[in-house]
Amino acid sequence: MTKASFRLENTWRPLANDPAGALDFTLINLSDAPIRDFKLAYTTLTRVKEPGVFDNAVLLKRNANFHQFAPPAGFVLEPGAAWRFSVASLWRRARHRTDGAKSAYVTLADGSHHDAAVIDCQIEGLPSELAPALLPAGEAKQPFALLPWPVKVDLSAGDLIPVALYPVSGTGLEDLRAVDDVLSLHYRLFADAPAPFVFATVEGGRPIRFARREELAPEAFEIAFSREEIVLSSAGKAGRQYALTALAHLLHGAKSDPKMFRFPASGQIADSPRYAWRGCHLDVSRQFFPTADVERLIDILAWFRLNTFHWHLSDDEAWRLEIKAFPELTTVGALRGPDEPLLPQLGNGAKPVGGFYTQEEARAVVAHAASLCVEVVPEIDIPGHSTAMLAALPDLADGQEAPESYRSVQGYPNNALNPAIEATYDVLGKVFDEMVTIFTAPVIHVGGDEVADNTWMASPLARSLMDKHGLDGTFGLQSFFMKRIQEMLKARGRRLAGWDEVSHGGGVTPEGTLLMAWRAPEVGIQLAKEGYDVVMTPGQAYYLDMVQDEAWQEPGASWAGTVPPKHTYTFEAAGEFPEELKPRLKGVQACIWAENFISRDYFNHLVFPRLPAIAEAAWTPRDNKDWLRFAAIVRLSPRL
Ligand code: ACM
To answer: What's the 416 CA to ligand 1 centre distance in angstroms?
Structure first.
């Protein structure tokens, strides 16, 4: 990595007359040469509200989180000197260290771009302490490291920790392969830990005998422990894998922390999940996660018996899935850079940054997930959140629509696919044709969130579609669009999944449609009343990019509030659901939105322990949840 010749520092300061305050910037020239006629760009979620109020700088360009400034005319920045300027009229105040510039670069008079190093936002005139510990020490009243905790558990702790567990001789090939799968999973997650399973009989180990019990539900299992053997009962692949995972947890805990955890000498576990949909979403648009990271996250899901990976493959910031019919989607639509159609955002600097999944890679991810009983649900986020798609396929816009006729909540102008343009459906049809050859899940997620209020109202084509079909405004158009998408998916043998706003403006046919309630828990109940199947993903509890404490030094977003791990753990998705609507509540899901995930450290800090907290909420009955037990066990979690 080359050393940056510039450094940009930023500090948030309160203002008497504006609760959003101001950001003060200092650009330091660490190069050997004076610079003049230069520009400075930075990316920040604390955007300026145009026209903006600036001191000692002129705003040249803004696109969502991208901001570009020039110093006053004639200004020369000498080596070792600093340019200071301020930006007020922010759309909301900075609350946490991650609310300032995430990246910056300088463009010199010759057009060349040079990174400026940044550190997180500082704060002036207010405390900037670290958050207190987010997890208590915890207490495992029963000395067993099981996460999620079972429905029924009646175990006596043994004095000896088995050396390893091994299949009894004569075990069938499928059962042996299941042991191999969980042994490999454990090895990938904890390469430095002792192996929980071996294949050869080992002195001091304990044999496992597999029993097939057809009457058990597919994800259910039972384990009976005695000094002589362990009998593992299941109806098939999922239950068997979960039972082996539970055994691996028990042994891993007993070996990693023998003061706290033991291995059972005798007794039983009888277990099955609370919810059918136990999900985790990953936004790979705002930040790209290479296939190896995606597969490791899926490993982590499997370790906690989550069964659904929701892959958020497109958004304003990038389109990440190879579509052979439209290579532009990943040549143009996945690349952000100073001279690209998509500008740097959310941590990008002078160098263009791309990344996408080839179809072969996506198929490998699906196969990897399937081998661990995890289903991959792909999402392309339409009709809103489509800046990247429109940058790649500009003909999908109505040429008569004014350029900045509406903006999304993230600040993107004109970012929605136009329901009145027939080519939109032709393109999406080809995209779905290819997606169904990659993804095997019965649903395809098509987003549907955050279409801004006045979207398409300046599009003559959309206006005439409204007249023709008697559609009522933006959401009448959205419903028209989504109904067609639903039919297109049906024709390809798939059902529609989306975010909760799919129901707006008349929605789609609820039968077989699954919507994710993200804006608030009450939304889920309303969707169920309307006849939709519901997965609860409320930002206030299950968005893992939210900060975990109010302290300035805690990283993350805060628009949905502060979400301490205890709140995520104790939150009850079924809370206010009327009894008669409960069958519509299919499950719960963690969402990993990536705007703030500019380092691996931030990923791990924000995702753990809250992802395992959601895994336990997804599996364990309400009365068996125990925050202190969870806190004691969750320390053993793997990290990305
Ligand atoms: C969302 O958070 N816009 C689904």
So the answer is: 15
Measured torsion, CA atoms of residues 242, 617, 530, 474, in degrees rounded to the nearest 10: -100
**Angle, helix 600-607 to helix 610-619, in steps of 10 degrees:** 40
Q: How large is the greatest C-alpha to C-alpha distance in the chain, in angstroms?
A: 85
125: alpha, beta or left? (left if phi > 0; alpha if psi -120 to 50): left
**499 Cα to the center of ligand 1, angstroms:** 7
- Alpha-carbon radius of gyration of the chain: 26
| Residue of 450, 501, 616, 626 with catalytic role | 450
Domain boundaries, position 235: 152-271
Q: Is 385 a catalytic residue?
A: yes
The reply to whether 345 and 442 lie within a common domain is: yes
Domain count, the chain: 3
Question: Is 24 one of the annotated active-site residues of the chain?
Answer: no
Closest-CA residue, ligand 1 atom 2, reads 518
**In ligand 1, which atom is closest to the CA atom of 500?**
4
316 lines ligand 1 (CB under 6 A): no
For the Cβ of 542 lying below 6 angstroms from any atom of ligand 1, the answer is no
CA–centroid distance, 450 to ligand 1, in Å, is: 7
Q: What is the 385 CA–ligand 1 centroid distance (Å)?
A: 10
- The Cα-based distances of 103 to 9, 43, 83, 152, 159 in angstroms read 10, 6, 17, 50, 54
Q: For 399-436, how does the pLDDT look when each residue is reduced to its tens digit (9 = 90+)?
A: 999 999 999 999 999 999 999 999 999 999 999 999 99
- Looking at the fold, whether 480 and 420 belong to one and the same domain comes out as yes
Q: For residue 354, give the amino acid letter.
A: G
Q: How many other CB atoms are there within 10 angstroms of residue 532's CB atom?
A: 27
Which stretches does DSSP call E strand in 288-411? Answer: 308-312, 314-315, 318-319, 375-382
- Over residues 157-213, the pLDDT tens digits come to 989 999 999 999 999 999 999 999 999 999 999 999 999 999 999 999 999 999 999
User: Which of 396, 495, 388 lies closest to 436 in space, CA to CA?
Assistant: 495
In the chain, % of residues over pLDDT 90: 98
- In a shared domain, residues 82 and 162: no
449 Cβ closer than 6 Å to some ligand 1 atom: yes
Distance (Å, rounded) from C-alpha 578 to C-alpha 120? 45
pLDDT band at 2 (very low <50, low <70, confident <90, very high): low
pLDDT digits (tens, 9 = 90+) for 341-352: 999 999 999 999
Decide: pTM greater than 0.85. Answer: yes
249 & 264 share domain: yes
> What is the token pair recorded at 433?
């044709």
